[in-house]
Amino acid sequence: MEYVLDHVGIAVRSIDDALPFYINVLNGVLEDRYTSDTSGVEVYVAVVRTNDKVIELLAPTNKNSPMARFIKQRGKGVHHIAYRVDDLDKAVLEASKSGVRFLEDTLRTNTRGRRLIYVNPVSTDGTLIELCDYSNI
């Protein structure tokens, strides 16, 4: 299985406050901006491309969202690193056979058609890793 860096998710309190750095300083391009109201997600997302790399700025939609809890516990900054795979189901199966644990309740297709699941940070020595594929796009 090949794992390719897809994007880095960054927790911010306000996308409007964070965007100028990524656009004006890093010369990024705002590719997309949307809201995910899915229960257990509840996040505003801004997708910024800098050359061939993608950054997702993630801001909570309300004070009880998982992103709000993340920021309260760990502060702003890197939330997760995402790796693209050709076949998400196969990647999960292969990793599971190696003892990798997943946060099963995070398996979903986002509002833009990307299938994803998060690896339990217990399996990664504390880093939240997203595996994703684009088979539905």
TrEMBL record:
It comes from the Bacteria. InterPro entries: Glyas_Bleomycin-R_OHBP_Dase, MeMalonyl-CoA_epimerase, MMCE/EMCE_epimerase, VOC_core. One of its GO terms (biological process) is L-methylmalonyl-CoA metabolic process. Keywords: Metal-binding. Residues 4-134 form the VOC domain. The keyword Metal-binding applies. One of its GO terms (molecular function) is methylmalonyl-CoA epimerase activity. The keyword Ribosomal protein does not apply. Belongs to the methylmalonyl-CoA epimerase family. This is VOC family protein. It comes from Paenisporosarcina antarctica.
